[in-house]
Amino acid sequence: MRSKLYILPLLALIVTSCGEYEKLLKSTDYELKKQKVYDYYDAGKYVKTVELLGQILPRYRATDEAEQLNWINAQANYKLQDYLMAGTYYQSFAEIYPMSNNAEEASYMSAICDYNMSPRPELDQANTRKAIENFTIFMKKYPGSTRTDDCKAKVNELQEKLVEKSYLSAKLYYDLKQYRAATVSLANALKEYPETKYREELMFLKLDALYLYASLSVQAKQVERYQATLDEYYSFIEEFPQSQYLKDVKRIMQATAKFLKVDITATETN
Fold this sequence. Notes:
By secondary structure, this protein is mainly alpha-helical.
């Protein structure tokens, strides 16, 4: 019974509070709404902050308070983890108020929003590339910023994600036995990311894909494609003479040499 006595006043307070907020949304007192924006933001009520700002920002666009209200709008959206909208507002703020004390942070936070939207490597990496671009722009714009090291670290992290995406995409063609597409995708991955930690595996997969593509080709195309396999073998063995894939590499080399009727025993690794 006592618990019910506590609950009833609480419910009444909630209902009253909600009613007051609904009245505020319908109100034409924009000065009151503006003051409530500051109050709600300071209290961590970011949904209400954003809702009210959507109503009053057009009214204060050309006023002295426009800068602060726009900054709060970007910050509140970020705190709600609406990174798409927050990123848009941060970028807009940096462009409209380049002399603001918050301009540098706005530019940085715009990139952070893209960073936060960067998905796992298997998915589309548009936001990853955009984040790299925005961090790079930030570092050029603010070369002396204390955030430079953080930006560099995040760019490196994002680039590794692109490398993994490239690796997974190339390997997918190979796993699907689409060997022609695999050789192209693997070659592109190696060209775009020559220092990747996956380099040895990518080069082996490319060699094996070329070999399998040649072996499955029509007779008229086999000589040309086996020759491409042999050329790739030389490139691989020169770079990785003690490769973990050496047994399979030798097998590919021997089958290729047999088909082409060439003697390459001198190049074999013992």
